[in-house]
Amino acid sequence: MPHIEVRDVSLAYDTPAGRVAGVQAASFEIEQSEFLCIVGPSGCGKSTLLNLIAGFLTPTAGEIRIGGKPVNGHGLDRGVVFQDFAQLFPWRTALGNVTFGLEMKGVGKAEREEIARNQLRLVKLEKFTDSYPHHLSGGMQQRVAIARALAYNPSVLLMDEPFAALDALTRDDMQRLLADVWRETRKTVIYVTHNVAEAVYLADRVIVMTPHPGRVKAYVQVALPRPRDPLSVEFLEYQKELLNHLGQAAKVDANGGTP
Q1: Does residue 54 contact residue 17 with C-beta atoms inside 8 Å?
Q2: Please, what is the Cα angle at 32 between 142 and 195, to 5 degrees?
Q3: Least enclosed by CB within 10 Å: which of 6, 44, 74, 129?
Q4: Beta strands 156-160 and 188-192: pairing type?
Q5: pLDDT tens-place string over residues 35-77
Q6: What is the pLDDT of residues 79-136, one digit of tens each?
Q7: ω before 227 within 30° of 0 (cis)?
Q8: Quick count: other Cβ atoms within 10 Å of Cβ 134?
Q9: CA within 13 Å, CB half, 130
Q10: What are phi and psi of 230, to 5 degrees?
Q11: For residues 73 and 55, is the Cβ–Cβ distance under 8 A?
């Protein structure tokens, strides 16, 4: 059985101009421990689809299952990391941010702090346990957010363009770190990005979405050994393949149908 099943999922919004489709008839499956990236142009419904899987939104049609069970609201089987640095509590230290979910679960102080320290060690922040978010760089804040999402041991990690606001060098470092964390934890990851090179670097498989409304346009299996070399010919060929699909997606939007 696939770990995650998305079956003909659609979401429509009511607006003053009428009903607008955000995601339309999206269907795909994700295997246990698979790293899946979702790419597409701005406004194609990538984040909407992630929020549907997270349980923050309810589809107007279709069904999402995780571990064979229907998704009905957010659950502790899913950890979420957003782009916004403000997702951390500014009044809590790095350790305090990571322990928060465990605290809400009623885990004892000693146990939750041990778990949090282990997660901060995983993201290479063991020396910054007592630092507050405003003392940390953007990349370090995102490391704390990843550690917090992993602390209560969800089976699925959902990430919505978590590195988009970082500078290029920090983003490269964070991609390498995330690849290491995934290899260590073997979580099932769904990662939304508009960056094609990032998708090729991280993903086992990439879903390409069309814009307005978001439909699944193509699936691309990235059969490259890890760690990946972004300068290799094979890496660049995968980038070209994804860009070609994205170009076709743009034609679909412009022509109102398949080119």
Answers
A1: no
A2: 45
A3: 74
A4: parallel
A5: 999 999 888 889 999 999 999 999 999 999 999 999 999 888 9
A6: 999 887 778 999 999 999 999 988 888 899 999 999 999 999 999 999 999 999 999 9
A7: yes
A8: 9
A9: 0
A10: -65, -10
A11: yes
What SS3 string covers the chain? CCCEEEEEEEEEEEECCEEEEEEEEEEEEECCCCEEEEECCCCCCHHHHHHHHHCCCCCCEEEEEECCEECCCCCCCEEEECCCHHHCCCCCCHHHHHHHHHHHCCCCHHHHHHHHHHHHHHCCCHHHCCCCHHHCCHHHHHHHHHHHHHHCCCCEEEEECCCCCCCHHHHHHHHHHHHHHHHHHCCEEEEECCCHHHHHHHCCEEEEEECCCEEEEEEEECCCCCCCCCCCHHHHHHHHHHHHHHHHHHHHHHHCCCC
Contact between residue 30 and residue 188 where contact means Cβ atoms under 8 Å apart: yes
Contact criterion met (CB below 8 Å) for 28 and 51: no
Which two structure tokens, joined as six digits, stand for 252?
A: 């679909």
- What six digits make up the tokens of 122? 């995983």
Strand order through the sheet with 18-30: 18-30, 4-15, 61-66, 69-70
The one-letter amino acid code at 255 reads: N
Partners of 64 in the beta sheet? 6
Lookup result for tokens 């363009």: 161
Identify the bridge partners of residue 69 per DSSP, sorted by sequence position: 66
- pTM of the predicted protein model: 0.91
